[in-house]
Amino acid sequence: MILPTKHVRPERALIGVGAEVLEILKRPMTMSRLWDEVRGRRSLHTPSAPIDYQWFVLSLDLLYTVGAVDFDRGLVRKVAA
Fold it and tell me: 14-78 domain in CATH 3.30.2320?
């Protein structure tokens, strides 16, 4: 689920979805705006691997847990490394 396996393709693994989220987060965004951006990008680049909202939120949970993103005043933002 977090990492790709023989049953979970890389573009569906949470680490892969999280990488896409980090690519999109060039500036802070609201959750709804970020979700729209992720869906739009995935429909163009990986139409065979759609994700639902719960999977998107799980990827954000993973990113938050490892300290890659933060949620402040209604905005999701990358944490400076």
Answer: no
